[in-house]
Amino acid sequence: MRDAAEEAATVLKALSNPSRLLILCQLVEEERTVGEMEKSLGLGQAYVSQQLARLRDEGLVSATRDGRLMRYRLSDPRVTPVIRTLYEQFCSQ
Amino acid sequence: MRDAAEEAATVLKALSNPSRLLILCQLVEEERTVGEMEKSLGLGQAYVSQQLARLRDEGLVSATRDGRLMRYRLSDPRVTPVIRTLYEQFCSQ
DNA sequence: TTCACATATTTCAATATTTGAATATGTCCG
DNA sequence: CGGACATATTCAAATATTGAAATATGTGAA
User: Fold this and answer.
1) Which residues in chain B are closer than 8 Å to A8, comparing Cβ atoms?
2) What pLDDT does residue A2 have?
3) Which of B61, B1, B2 minimizes the C-alpha distance to B32?
4) Chain segment B13-34, per-residue pLDDT in tens
5) Beta carbon pairs, A and B, within 8 Å
């Protein structure tokens, strides 16, 4: 229980930043390119890439190269339900 | 969407600490006294009280005095589903 | 090879968080 | 009132996070 709390807290910390949260929300829908996320979020390239690096380190997303693009997707099945619940509670008016 | 993300991220930050998360997990079940939480979590009095103060500031819990005891409960209906989802994902082996 | 595009990494100052220790406040009882 | 119990607040040092700026790396096309 204590260990589960440690692990959940680590994941929550990764989610507890507005930009990272929006990135993850997008990825719940489907794979995305770094450039797509930059544009839809209106954030700078370096910053988005930096946040993605952090999410990668935490094991929450993974990426594959596709030509000069990098396609990101969620890689921890535990976070999808969490994001969905957050969406229901904070985004449906 | 941006505002919702800001708000959700603020709540997630409050949840992203193992002690606070365990406190909130307990409160999903039922009201609890500071002393009860101290004992069941094995944490010091000052520390528990400090984390509760933070959760109060964020509006996630509220308390009422009952003699010399303080009874805490969840006060933001949005967090209960989030905690339940976390429990399903991180605590059911 | 060279250029332009797409993405990644490093670095840094400002700011926030974490936790323990000491101390304060509020309440009941005799 | 005075003491014991329950809880709260304050303080501070160590550590972590934030977000911007500069720079580096990988890839395809000419």
Assistant:
1) 18, 21, 86, 89-90
2) 79
3) B61
4) 999 999 999 999 999 999 999 9
5) 90
